Amino acid sequence: MKLYTLGTGAPLHYTRATTGFLVEAAGEPLLIDTCGGFELVRRLKALGKTPEGFHHAVLTHRHGDHIGGVMALAIAANPLHLYGSADALQATKDLLTLTYGEAAFNVLEHVQFHPVEAGRAYDIAGYTLEFLEVVHRVPTLAVRLEHAGKVIAFSADTLPCDNAIEVAKHADLYLCDALCARADGASYIPRVKDLQHPIAAEAAQMAKEAGAKALALTHIARYGTAENMLKEAGDIFSGELSVPDDLHCFEL
Ligand SMILES: [Zn+2]
Ligand SMILES: [Zn+2]
Known about the structure:
Elements: E1 2-7, E2 20-24, E3 30-34, H1 39-46, E4 56-59, H2 64-67, H3 70-76, E5 80-84, H4 86-100, H5 104-109, E6 111-115, E7 121-124, E8 127-134, E9 140-147, E10 150-154, H6 162-166, E11 173-177, H7 189-194, H8 200-210, E12 214-218, H9 226-234, E13 240-242, E14 249-251
Parallel strand pairs: 3-4, 4-5, 5-6, 10-11, 11-12, 12-13
Antiparallel strand pairs: 1-2, 1-14, 2-3, 7-8, 8-9, 9-10
């Protein structure tokens, strides 16, 4: 199984696209979040792919930096299956309606919305997915994906919480949001809390408690530096640790 990072930045990052991941195995490719908008197309093209080839996307929550790419997928991919909480799916529908106006009817015709609930497992595009509710400014689901004995977990956006540990129990790869390290500046810490994200040390502590084999820090703020984040997280988490750039490929 391969996981490509399409976007690893927070909304105001200057170079990283916002959150999106691509999972590939034998079956259909699956997107977990979709970046913030049409840059999804550029990211996919950089991997030699076009949006027409993607028919399944999981949406962790309604924030634009995660669902924006559906604007591109909905006019390229037919059919398009979207999975998420009722709240995330409603916001996505609203976004498509707003974006495409009178043409929205034609666009929405081939989009299928599949609500998922926390605490249940689903077979999506040939992968087994479980969702757990985490703590963010809006209803948000962390994702645990299993395929061929390998587990990838994604925290979505969340304050440190029990479910962000539970979702990553013994995961082969834990993608955890973290905006920055303490060493990037004490003045940023209250802001990170207010935005309801962990810092690198908190993500590392959750990965450690989960017994995850590898931790990848993502959703990096423009004031977050990989150097400081790796040092801070590495003092706590002894497994494989990275702050991947966009278009990085993890092989599991
Ligand atoms: Zn968010
Ligand atoms: Zn976000």
